[in-house]
Amino acid sequence: MTERPTNLSDLVARVMDQAIAAGVFPGAALLVANGSSIEFSAAYGRMTYEQHAPAVRPDTPFDIASISKVVATTSLVQLQIQQARLMLDTPVTDWIPEFKLGHQAGLMIWHLLSHRSGLIDWKPYYEQINPAAMDHGIRGRQRLEQLLFQESASYAPGSKALYSDLGFMLLGLVLERVTQTPLDRLSESAVFAPLGLMNTRFYRLDDACDWHDALQIAPTEECSWRKTRIQGVVQDKNCFTMGGVAGHAGCFSNTIDLHRFALDILSSFRGNRNLLFHPSLLQQFTIPIDTHTGSHALGWDTPSSNGSTGGIFSPNTIGHLGFTGCSLWIDLSGDWIIILLTNSTYPFETNRAIKTFRPRLHQALAQLFGIRSH
User: Chain centroid to CA 65: how far?
Assistant: First the structure.
């Protein structure tokens, strides 16, 4: 085993402080674990670049953006399959008959999960909806659904992979119709509470946290569309338009909770049947559909060449990125878990310096902790 340097904390701090100085993000929380053993956990920087802004803590909640796709939506689909209420080959129109593309293409649940739905990656639906007249997202959500249901295919479903927020928006709506429960309430009762994720939740616009609680959450943007600082409210504008709750984004969490979540995934993958997810189904969800057309499994992403992992993990690794600068990676062979939470979109979402920083950070951590790809 590689001997670790005695000044490990200083070496990690140097990498993180350099990123803050370079404007990659104003603050971040980092956790490195080998299974249940937390090898390293620390926080860096401040909530904003302002000199007297509050410091980020290891337990600071962040908007985890698209990591919501695995922590909430993918997990819920698995549970519905385990309960025989859904199947991977269930037609989407069984639950959303008004969805135009579903009738055209025989679209199934697995197409949405694996980003092979025929839908484009993203669309600024929010631009067609005035944020000042959304009635806490109720009318905004209704209008966005109408627009989403009219989408047509950009390619034949199943023929290639194209990462799509739109597909996971649909999955969230399918889950709500299957269970007759709002997605945030369903996530809380079926996933967050059973796993003890005490600081993981959606912030619904009509039930948002009070200002004191919001100040404890890392802000994500000075938003020109909403004309305010985004703090304690979801950064993703389409999710905001849907009232703060959607299948593709909206969750807030911290490194402590995401480590608990990753541990359940690891334990289930190892065959522990006493946990939330059935081992055989979970294993099915972690296998890339087709590495020639994309790196995604069912819901989960896997390492790709020149990707964010920096090539440090085994091929048997799953994870996800978040637009706000967050990432979660779980090496199912080596038990390594690396969680990076940042607000790199602050003050402006056009900052994408996190893209080149992530692989450098992972490579530095591999050297410091002796992480090896297998």
Answer: 5
With H, G, I as helix, E, B as strand and everything else as coil, classify residue 91.
Answer: strand
Largest CA distance in the chain: 61
What pLDDT was estimated at residue 2?
57
* Burial tier of 182 (Cβ tally within 10 Å: 0-12, 13-18, 19+): middle
Residue bearing tokens 């790709």: 304
Task: Please give the Cα distance from 87 to 97 (Å, whole number).
Answer: 17
Q: What is the DSSP string of 356-369?
A: HHHHHHHHHHHHHH
CA distance 35 to 266: 8
Q: Give the CATH number of domain 69-197; options: 3.50.50.60, 3.40.190.10, 3.40.50.1370, 3.40.710.10.
A: 3.40.710.10
pTM of the model: 0.96
Q: Is the link from the previous residue into 347 a cis peptide, with omega within 30 of 0? A: yes
pLDDT digits (tens, 9 = 90+) for 339-357: 999 999 999 999 999 999 9
> Residue 373: pLDDT above 80?
no
Q: Please report where in the chains the tokens 């839908």 appear, as a residue.
A: 119
Q: Which two tokens stand for residue 124?
A: 């600024």
Distance, first Cα to last Cα, the chain:
14
